Model the fold of this input.
Amino acid sequence: MPTFWEAARIWARIGVRSFGGPAGQIAVMHRMLVEERGWIGERRFLHALNYCMLLPGPEAQQLASYIGWLMHRTAGGLVAGIFFILPGALVMLALSVIYVLYGATPIIAALFLGVKSAVLAVVVEAVLRVGRRALKTRAAIVIAVAAFVGLYLLKIPFPMIILAAGLLGWFAPHLVAAGPEAESEDQAPGLVDQLIAEGRASHLIPSRGRALRVLAVWLPVWLAPLVVLYLVFGDAHVWTQLAGFFSTMGVVTFGGAYAVLTYVAQAAVDGFGWLQPGEMADGLGLAETTPGPLILVLQFVGFLAAYREASGLNPLLAGALGALLTTWVTFAPCFLWIFLGAPYVEALRGHRAAASALAAITAAVVGVIANLALWFGLHVLFRDVHQITVLGVGPDVPNLLSLDWRPAVLTLAAMVAMLRFKVGMGPTLMASAIGGLALSYLV
Done:
């Protein structure tokens, strides 16, 4: 088992490399934690991912917190979750300052064009690898395909896909369970699994006392800023509005950032008047070029809101405080969900119906990741993507004439480098970033 500080260094590296939305971030963690280091086994990784997919908030950040908690208890979960957020939050803050002072930043967009191209290669590899290992029965394959079709073609809400898969696995475990042959092909356990097998993971044992202690600590951590701001400034102040609104978002953001961005944009523009029309799209573009969860776009909203209602403070200082407050109330509940629920989720591993439900969710998650990968790929490779609708539903399709040859070339090069020549992720990301800059300005 790695030491706490060895793990902290890896979590910092993951945080810096976590581009590409949840599909890319899950792929990065799987590659670095399961494939390269063997810290956690395939089954336990997918088991943790299943739970995180059920939670509100960014599933990849919660997955990092879960695995960090497995390895080094609460401190490990905090370091993993914070380091997953911190690089992107700092970059997003810097880009927000540049945005209000200088407007668009084409050099940043060019630099991260290459990064996103490399991440697309990582995502494709991850979908193939995770799918090959998770889809060991015909029923699992059918569930994965159904989840993909439901999301991509029918636009069924993400929580309904996961809920339906879980119910199928719970009430029809004989359909989902893998046979002996498939079970024998399971991957070797990771270091975390060995630690648990040796009985050295007492924090995995759920108890009412522990749950009450978690609630006693993390509810105030999450909600105390809102209460203090309400008592000091009242409910009409921008600080209180930010804390209250984004605390609510932290509870209802099922399905990731895109599930709630339309609502947030409408509320920020028409409801509170924090943003001008079109600025939400600018913030989303900035968030897509940074590491970390895409939900960091909410930090951009908090920055602009506080920047424009500085109340006597330096506007940049007020904006920075608004960004910090928004980030705090957005991500604090994520730690609550993990520290409160993870012991119970681990206890369910031996429950047949629960294990079958989570296996069905695993299969559905493969379809979800494939859908995210396709969405990410379409928006990286094509400038124009639109939806074809029949009776209100239909797929997103690209305008083939809008193909951007630069990310296409960089993605192909990254895939050849990683899959054929086994080049590491770090050198590939660096070379792709330089390539994006070169192709954007020199060609």
